[in-house]
Amino acid sequence: MEDRDNNSKKRTPEEATLVSENKRFRTELNVLKPPEPLIQLDLINQIKTKNEGYEFRFISKKWYVRWEAYCLGINSRPPPVNNSAIMNEKNKLKQGSEIEEDYLVIPLRAWNYLVLWHGLVNRSHELTFLKPNIAPPTKVKKLSSKPKFLVKKELLSDPIYHFNVYRVGQTTKRSQSFTISASCKAIEFQTSLLNTLDHSLGTQETFKLWLLNHENNHLLSRLRGSSSFVITTQFLNDKRFAIQIDTSSISDSSKLIDILPHSMNAKEFYLAVNLIKKKPPQEQAMPLSYKKTLGLIGLQNLGNTCYMNSALQCLSNTPQLTQWFTNNHYKQDLNTNNPLGLNGDLASAYAAILKDIWKENTNFTTASRSSISPREFKSTFERFNPHFVGFLQQDSQELLSFLLDGLHEDLNRVHDKPYIEIPDFDNQLSDLEIATRFWQYHTARNDSIIVDLFQGQYKSRLVCDECKKVSVTFDPFMYLSLPLAQQQDEKKREINIVYVPYLPSQKQLKTKVYLAQDATIEQLKQEVENNINLSSINYEYSLLVTEIVAERIYKVFDSTELVSSIQPTDHIYIYQLPCPSSSLDHPDWVIFPVYCSLQSSLRDDHTDKVSPIRQFGYPIVLAMKKGELQDGFDLYRVIVQHIERYCIVKLFEEDTLSPTIAPSKNALSVDLPQQPIHTTAAVTSAGGRPTTPVPNLFQIKVFECQTSSPGLFPQTSQATDWKKPAFQEDLVQQGQGVIIEWTLPKAQQAFGSSFSSIKTDAWHDFDETKTKNEITLQDCLDEFTSDERLTSEDSWYCPQCKKHQHASKKMDIWKLPEIMVVHLKRFSQFRRWGETKLNTFVDFPLTELDMTDKVLGPHEHRLVYDLYAVDNHYGGIGGGHYTAFAQNFLDKEWYEFNDTQVTRIESNEIKTNAAYLLFYKRRA
């Protein structure tokens, strides 16, 4: 007892206070039982916000995040507090551990509560941190030039900054230094800095600050080791070495943690300081835009938070909502008892950041501020939705959706939500009566400024395929989520095809079709027939679907195969055939391919060695009735008719090919096997001309089917001179193919003297169906309201059949809100290829978007909307960058908001293929 008293007498006043505080905590905790999870979270957050006390504890972030999830009801109760992940064998902080990534620093009182409620795995894992700025002065003097506590910029707890200070333009034998808490006010930082320099700031004096780039090792070695190093102004203007800190935007109450650049992750910091004379007030030039317009304030990127900044800037320029918040009308609607909200904290945090953005400029200091930190808002929003905790890249549309939901719950005028069971109306009432009932049910539980401005109503109609049961519902929506018209919907995919008509007088066509993943090749054929309008053909035909690889038919698809076997990069050619079936084993028809090749100059006629086939161009597919090919001339004539469509000369006129034309030297060096035969100058018809083709254009060879062929057509690896078989009725049998072998001079005369017009694909030769890479917002709206088939993957539970059924579904817009947010579904999840982003350009109107004809519900006037903001996403999946375009509702000018940068833009710059969210407001 005597020893304890003696020890007590030796304690400093600060240590005695600490011991007393710990005793009080232990006494208090011993009588407490663990409160409800949400109360735990609220209490700990309050303690962290006050940030009081002298002693702090390190805690594993992994455990802390799990505990937060438990408090929010999305995870089970966590095990005892466990810091083993951040500790080494010596029970010290593990080297390489980073604050906010691996651990947090929390006040001692918060630590004691967590240990009391959940226990502690190992008492030796208690890591203590003492605040140097309120510790005994003697301890501060003992700090070395390097900090003992290494920190990052982005800290929710209270890091300590240690600064080495250099004057601009003066030599120094050693740096002067000071240590200060990041949570201190700017005035404290300024005072500490000036005290270190032994200088009092005059009324006509201010200072400039530069943060020296800690990544430049050569520079730092000079700073640390030189006794005569001079930091010049020229050096400080070089962004590679220094970052200037805008002191004009710093108010006395600003926190140091919000002043320094957010990219600062150095272990020690060097500040260059210059004391300068203030300019007379009349010389202080305020930017013209700030004199006239409020709201042009950027938002600092806290670390991958551009998704939040862009959404906030778009929402900030919503005049009705912003004025309602900045005029404090929101306070009368705060719902602090709604368990689905955040006790009004989210609404208050949003009001605070709006007031910062739209603060009236009364002097140069506030007028010249260019950006603010949204840190407090983000911290509050994270409490509402832990999914956004941390600094990972997130989706701007998801944040906007959760933000509007959270604001609605914080401002819900309904404090006691009634239970409402939605009846099945069974078509007993009109659509108007049903829609009115549904809206009344919704507003009986949901009534807020968000509902007033942002919520509309869908009409959904489902029809069961089996019992024809019709179900009609009217659901509220916060934004219109529109599929891109080319995309159709998330379960459909785009297939590029080339259609080859059988008649030589008709051109080939390229088109796109959109089919469900489980669609068959037969459905692909039907879609092609609809796209190209083949219903007008008055003769019997069939379609042969093939895959072309290296100018050869690699595969013939069976009608029952799924289109999911087609890869996005596959070359799909669909051949029209003049026979009732494209089956390659048809009893009455012979279907065979024809390939073009060049005679090899290396062929030795005195040996039996087979020469390689120098194939070029895409194949032709012919279909002949058995018995029609009686001799070689008939076969030759049919081939010439079909090959002429790709030639630059006529093949049915005598003497067209002059034997005196010699190939150019350049032509001989062309890699001909890689070149196809198609040209844009192709002749389309032989009708009306002499029926005798030019003789001896090529030699005909026949090749046999090989068992190693992956397709149903034969491969062209070997071919023999054609001779009429003695016991065969037809010259070409099913399972055989034809190669027409050209000499180089004749091929050049038929397809171009140097093959320069022959392309490796036939796309330049084709007519095009509608395949433009641009779509309109109207196209997207049309696609949204089109009929949709619900198959086995997304079947509907029919209340009449009492099971999931295939059904048809149609969505329509019944009611539109005053503020219409359009979400373009650029990010799509495909079962086979994963998530993709569509960069399709969508043409949307800036003014006078007339939605009258798209709304089924009653409306007294035309529904005309004007664009006022766009949320843009640049880049691809898992990354990229968000910016915002917004029209300031005061000066009516358009501006780009790129984090801290705010730039005026012209209206013709607004439409890009990065547009992701469109914000429209309805005209009065």
Automatic annotation (TrEMBL):
UniProt cross-references to Pfam families, sorted A to Z: DUSP, UCH, USP7_C2
Top enzyme class, one word, equals hydrolase
DUSP domain span = 35-134
Tell me one GO biological process term.
Answer: protein deubiquitination
Q: Which reaction does it catalyse?
A: Thiol-dependent hydrolysis of ester, thioester, amide, peptide and isopeptide bonds formed by the C-terminal Gly of ubiquitin (a 76-residue protein attached to proteins as an intracellular targeting signal)
Q: What is its EC number?
A: 3.4.19.12
Q: State any single GO MF term.
A: cysteine-type deubiquitinase activity
Under InterPro entries, the record lists: DUSP-like_sf, Papain-like_cys_pep_sf, Pept_C19_DUSP, Peptidase_C19_UCH, Ub_carboxyl-term_hydrolase, USP, USP_C, USP_CS
Query: From which residue to which does the signal peptide run?
Result: none
The USP domain covers 297-923
Which keywords fit this entry according to its UniProt record? Answer: Hydrolase, Protease, Thiol protease, Ubl conjugation pathway
Family statement drawn from the similarity comment of this UniProt entry: Belongs to the peptidase C19 family.
This protein's name: Ubiquitin carboxyl-terminal hydrolase
Q: Which gene encodes it?
A: USP15
